[in-house]
Amino acid sequence: MKAKSTTSWFQKILPSPFALAILLTILSFILALILTDNTNPDTNHLINILGFWQKGFWELLTFAMQMMLMLVLGNALALTPVFKRFVLSMVKYANTTSSAVILVSIISLSLAYLNWGLSLILSALLAQQIGKKAKEQKQDLNYPLIGAAAYSGLMVWHGGLSGSAPLKVAEKGHFLFNQIGQISITETLFSSMNMMVIGASLILIPLSFWILSKRNTK
Predict the structure, then answer these.
(1) I want to staple 119 with a disulfide (CB 3.0 to 4.6 A). Which of 11, 112, 208, 209 is the partner?
(2) Using an 8 Å Cβ cutoff, are 87 and 129 in contact?
(3) CA 4 to CA 2: how far, in whole Å?
(4) pLDDT tens digits for 55-101?
(5) Sign of CA dihedral 106, 108, 109, 115
């Protein structure tokens, strides 16, 4: 009951994603007005900030399209017959909450390293199928925890092969090229530090879900 009341409370106070984007934009404007200096004394500071926002918005269209394609194509790939069969073949191994969260989190993390869009969709489908099977067989599983495990890939995706920032700064002439230059993916995605973090995450995150699954099975 406590979890349900907490969820209901957050649903009431949290705005929609679009409203949240508008609120964050307004907050950014206010902070820019307070914390930055006017770089063009001949023009009002607010007008300058609006100009920067407008210019930056259109400059990021290419980047936004790249991110959209990653999600759309990842979604399309997750819905192919091959991956659907993969999901159905994995469901049979999720007979308890513990086995389900370990399975789902490992798959989510592994796929997120390859493509965050694929992980986002396929892991959710896997959790859904596990829940459907549990309902049909009247298994007592902690479905909210399994759902959380499905999105655990979002904890590592930016260190993976579809990480937006590492891929963007590896391009020649990217929008921050004059400030930071071109940074190869060997220094970011394939750096020893990043690989160690990814490896540790593949162990620690499923382990954390396993520990949580032992605390409550409902």
Answers:
(1) 112
(2) yes
(3) 5
(4) 888 877 877 887 788 778 877 888 889 988 999 899 999 999 999 99
(5) positive
Q: How far is CA 85 from the centre of its chain?
A: 24
Show me where the domains of the chain are located: 1-59, 60-215
Residue written as token pair 């964050």? 24
Backbone angles phi, psi at 138, to 5 degrees: 55, 45
Q: Mark out the alpha helices in the chain (DSSP H runs).
A: 2-13, 17-35, 45-59, 61-78, 81-91, 97-114, 116-136, 143-150, 164-169, 177-180, 192-215
Each residue's pLDDT tens digit, 136-179? 988 889 999 999 999 999 999 999 998 888 988 998 888 788 89
User: Would you state the structure tokens that stand for residue 45, as one six-digit string?
Assistant: 């500071």
Q: What is the C-alpha separation between 33 and 129, in angstroms, rounded?
A: 50
| Gap between the Cα atoms of 113 and 123, Å rounded | 13
**Angstrom distance (rounded) from CA 57 to CA 66:** 15
The answer to whether 202 and 106 have CB atoms below 8 angstroms apart is yes
Q: Which residues, including other chains, have CB under 8 Å from residue 76's CB and lie 6 or more apart?
A: none
Extract the tokens encoding 93: 């191994």
Give the whole-angstrom CA distance, residue 168 versus residue 157: 15
